[in-house]
Design brief:
8-stranded mixed beta sheet; alpha+beta; Aminopeptidase; globular; 25% strand; 2 domains; 13 helices
């Protein structure tokens, strides 16, 4: 076997080698069909590339990269209006607006790469490093200087594959955790889950269900998603712009394209009062794992009817019924997710600035890039 691996960078899914999907078994988010969703409906400020890693002629690794131009965003998040936010925005525009990510900025979890079991993982990450440098040169040739390079969302085991000289100058960080809900093998129905809750959290369940009694949940097909696209976009955008920090906004056609390509593997649930859509959530079937995706809602109704909490309970009920092993709830609203039984999984990443004078201060700068969230973990089970 070679002491090193070669790589090829692809600009479109049409160029991908025929055996690409043979390696995309650990996650659907590296599959050709998902990459086609990105290609047809990625955020306006995002450009995706795909990396194939080869041992001689054999494809042994696949990866996705995303270039983000943060100057194209009107807002990084409207929620926190303070001096710190203003400073952060100035820092971003001038020193951190061109970001190259190895991984997927739209998801939580290890969706950056998949390697064949037979290969040397550290040598494979070296090939990723070389491919990243090649991508930077490609962008430079187009007049774009990459400010920040980051590899994101690895477990404590996976981050060890990056312990090589190439990554020595990268700052290792840990962001907000990934909230993961494990489904007990004895649970066969939603009632089994309810029975496992302590009295306080059973009462929370009953109270939230009572509050949502006037709301009807419906699974929407492609035609309905298309028909309601404007309302869906308004509800999504309302939630997205009120997040503390944004690096992208989904285009209006995103959910339509997802449904067209993924069909029954992509679930879209609308919440209605009468015929008015007042909220929605989306789920993606990812092998034995259910991945929660983007949602939207009318905030006034959400508060009054505990809509978000009801959505979480609905996701749990469906996933138990369909024999999924776990639900990835991702990294927002940590406390409320822990109140339904999700547990935090620590995730790691690496980050580096193109300017070597900046890197020694990355630990300080990072606090501006990724504001820390203070939250209290709950345990709802008996």
């Amino acid at each position: 076997m070679n002491s090193f691996y070669s790589f090829t960078i692809y600009n479109s899914t049409a160029e991908l080698p025929p055996y690409w999907d043979n390696l995309a078994v650990s996650t659907v988010f590296l599959s050709k069909s998902y990459l086609e969703v990105l290609e047809q409906s990625s955020p306006e400020n995002m450009l995706c590339n795909y990396i194939g890693i080869f041992d001689n002629e054999i494809l042994v690794g696949i990866a996705v990269s995303q270039f983000l131009n943060l100057n194209k965003l009107e807002s990084f998040g409207d929620r926190d209006k303070c001096v710190k936010t203003a400073i952060r925005n100035i820092v971003f525009r001038n020193f951190a607006s061109h970001v190259l990510i190895i991984g997927n900025n739209m998801l939580t979890g290890q969706n950056a790469y998949a390697f064949a079991n037979s290969i040397d993982k550290k040598k494979a990450t070296q090939a990723l490093y070389d491919a990243t440098n090649q991508l930077k040169k490609i962008f430079k040739s187009k007049g774009i200087t990459i400010h920040i390079t980051t590899y994101k969302d690895f477990s404590s085991e996976e981050i060890k594959h990056f312990e090589t000289p190439a990554f020595k100058k990268y700052y290792q960080f840990s962001t907000q955790p990934n909230m993961v809900f494990s489904i007990h093998e004895n649970w066969k129905s939603e009632q089994d889950y309810i029975d496992s809750l302590s009295k306080k959290y059973r009462d929370q369940y009953k109270r939230s269900r009572k509050k949502a009694s006037g709301i009807e949940k419906r699974k929407l097909n492609l035609e309905e998603i298309i028909r309601l696209e404007d309302t869906i976009n308004d509800l999504y955008f309302h939630v997205a712009k009120n997040a503390p920090f944004n690096t992208f906004f989904l285009p209006k056609n995103h959910f339509r394209i997802f449904k067209e390509i993924f069909k029954e593997k992509f679930l879209f649930y609308g919440y209605f009062i009468g015929e008015k859509l007042i909220g929605f959530n989306t789920l993606i079937k990812n092998g034995e794992v259910m991945d929660t995706y983007f949602l939207g809602y009318d905030d006034s109704i959400q508060r009054e009817n505990m809509l978000y909490l009801n959505m979480l309970y609905d996701m749990i009920a469906y996933s138990i019924k369909k024999d999924f092993k776990e639900i990835v709830f991702a990294r927002t609203a940590l406390e409320i997710k822990s109140s339904v039984g999700a547990k935090p999984i620590k995730m790691y990443g690496l980050i580096s600035h193109t300017n070597p004078l900046v890197n020694p201060y990355m630990s300080i700068i990072f606090k501006y890039l990724e504001p820390k969230t203070i939250w209290q973990q709950r345990n709802p089970f008996k």
